[in-house]
Amino acid sequence: MTLLPPIPAKRYFTIGEVADLCGVKSHVLRYWEQEFVQLRPQKRRGNRRYYQHHEVILIRKIRSLLYEEGFTIGGARNRLEEVRGSLKLREELEAVVRLLSL
Question: Is the pTM above the cut of 0.85?
């Protein structure tokens, strides 16, 4: 497992900063944007990408799935969808519990 630097407490990160924080090259990040719908950095002035904190965490998860757990791009995409689906289900169940306890 590769030890990555801590993510600084700031709102936006450039593609170069994210590449350094996640241990991948900038062109890899641009490719992953095409492959993972969850990864949508904001684009401003001259199409410059600005990533938020949660996207840096997502990129680290994608990197882990691909490089450490051996998933393919498609497998990593499916795994992220499964996780998102289970989180959504948990949120729905918590909402039902709150309604029942009123």
Answer: no
